[in-house]
Amino acid sequence: MEQATAIPHVLIFPLPVQGHVTSMLKLAELLSLAGGGGIRVTFLNSDYNHTRLIQFSDAESRFRNYPAFQFKTIDDGLPMDQLTKGQKVSELVGAMGSKTRPVFKDSLVQMDPPVTCVIGDGALGFISEVSLELGIPNIRFRTISTCFFWINFWLPEIIQAGELPIQGEEDMDRMITKVPGTESFLRCRDLPAYCRGRSDEPTLLRIVRATRESSSPPYPLILNTFDELDGPILALVHHRLPKTYAIGPLHEHLRSRLHTTSYSSPSSSLWKEEASCLTWLDSQPLGSVLYVNFGSITMMRRDQAVEFWEGLINSKNRFLWVIRPGSVCFDEEMGCDNMPEELVEGVEKGNLKVLVGWAPQEEVLGHDAVGGFLTHSGWNSTLESIVAGVPMICWPFFADQQVNSRVVSEVLKLGLDMKDVCDRRVVERMVNELMVEKKEEFGRKAAEMARMAKESVKEGGSSYRDLELLIEDIKSQAQEVNGSKSNNSIS
C-alpha cells in the first residue's frame, strides 16, 4: 500500500473543445509513455466529447496499452452539440464555472487512488481554485500560443495606459506599446475580438483579468511551444513564471517518443476523418497544392465562402478545401442561391478537391504535394504547419488567432496575414504570392523552422529536456503530497 501511494496520479482536464482536447490528450499519452508505468494518468473529458472521441478516433484502443491510464467523464454544463460558433466558447466557460465546478470537486475528493497533481486547462480558472482548496498541486496548461498568453498577462496594463478600448476602424493599425517583447509588431488589429468592443467583451475581459490576478504567487505553467520558436517571449514568461515547461510541438514530441515512421501522430479527432483526400493528393505534383481548412469552430458567412471560392479559382492554383459540416452559415436574408454547388456537396475534378467533412490534417500537411496552408491560425494548426515545413496564409477568426497570424507573417516570416479582409482579389493575390512568386523564399524559411522543431523534441533538445523536468517535478510533488498525508495521519 505504501508503495502504491508513492506513484504519482495526474489528472488532466481540458476545456471540452477540439483544439484543447487534442493537445492535452497528447500530453496525457506523453506522460503515460515517458513515465514507463510510473505515472498514473486520468483524462477527464466531457460526456459529449468523450463519446465523439471514442467514435471517431482510436483513442480507446490506443490507451489500453497504458495500464496506468484511465478515461473519466464529466458534465460540462452546456449542450456541446450546440457549440458551433467561436463566441459560444465564452458561454461554455461560464457554464462550466457554475455547473461543473462542484461536480469536479466531488470527483477529485472521491478519486482512488488520490490525485497528486492536477494539470488543468488554463481557460478554466475553477480547476486551479478547486485544486488549491483541496491541497492538490496544480499545473496550468495553456493551449494557446505563448505570445497570446503573454499579451493577456499584460492586458490590465494595456487598459490602464489607455491603449484599450479600440476606438473604431480608424484605430485598428495603432501600435500597442505596453507588452514587453511585442512593441515592434503588435497593433490593435492583432488583438482578440473581446478587445474590439463586441457584445461579449465584459464577460471575456473579466475572465482574462481573473487569470492575471490569480498569477501570484507564480504558478507552474505548460506551454505547447519550443525555445527556437518563441525564445524571446518565453524568456520573459520564465522571468515572471519560473516553473514554465515548453514541451511542444506536442504532436511531434509524441511521434518522436513513439519512434513512429508515420507522419501523423495518434488521432484525437472528434470528427470522422475522410482519407479520400490523401489518395487525391497522391496524384498531384510536388508542392503544388494549397490546403484550405478553417478549423473546428470557425463560422463563415455564405458571401465569405463565395469570395474564397472565386479567389481560389481565379488564382489557377491547385487546392484542397476541407469544409466542416455546418461551418458555412446560411440564413433567410443571405440565402444560398449564389453558393457554388461544389461547396455544398463537395467535388473532385482537375486541379481542385472540395471535401465536405473532416481530414487527417497532420497527414495532409505532411504530404509531398502540399505547398501551402490557408488556415484560421489556431495554435495546433499553426504548429502542425510549422513541423511540416508548410508556409501559411492566415485568416484568423477568434481567440489567439489574430495574434498568431501576425506572428506568422511579421515575426517568423512563414506566411501572409489576411485578417479582417475577405475579398476574392486579395485571396487570388496572396495565393499566388505564397504558391508561385515567393514560393522558394517561404519554403526555405519554413523548412528551417521545421528542422528546429524536430530537433527540439529529440533527446537533448529544449522541449525534450523540459518534459523530463516536468516528469521529475510531478514525481517530486507526489512524494511531498504523500509525505504530508503521512505526517497528518501521525499527528
Number of helices: 20
Proportion in helices: 40-55%
Are there runs of 5+ residues with pLDDT below 50, and where? 1-5, 331-335
Relevant CATH superfamily of the largest domain: Glycogen Phosphorylase B
Radius of gyration, in angstroms, nearest whole number: 22 Å
Sheet/helix structural class: alpha/beta
The largest β sheet comes out as:
7 strands, parallel
In CATH terms, what is the architecture of the largest domain? Answer: 3-Layer(aba) Sandwich
Identify the strand order in the major beta sheet. Answer: 3-2-1-4-5-6-7
Shape: globular
Percent of sequence in beta strands:
5-15%
What is the CA–CA distance across the termini?
20 Å
Number of strands: 16
Mean pLDDT equals 87
Could you explain how this protein is built, in words?
β14 (370-375), α16 and β15 form a beta-alpha-beta unit. The chain has helices at 2-5, 18-34, 47-56, 59-63, 89-110, 125-133, 146-153, 155-160, 201-213, 227-240, 250-258, 276-282, 302-315, 341-345, 361-365, 379-388, 401-411, 424-437, 439-456, 462-490, and strands at residues 9-13, 40-46, 69-74, 117-121, 138-142, 221-223, 244-246, 289-293, 300-301, 318-323, 328-329, 347-349, 352-356, 370-375, 392-394, 415-417. Mean pLDDT is 87; it is low at 1-5 and 331-335. By secondary structure, it is of the alpha/beta class. The chain is globular. The chain has two domains: 2-261 and 456-490, Rossmann fold, CATH 3.40.50.2000; 276-453, Rossmann fold (3-Layer(aba) Sandwich). It starts with a helix and ends with a helix. The strands form three sheets. A seven-stranded parallel beta sheet has the order 3-2-1-4-5-6-7, with helices on both faces. A seven-stranded mixed beta sheet has the order 12-13-10-8-14-15-16, with helices on both faces. α2 (18-34) packs parallel to α11.
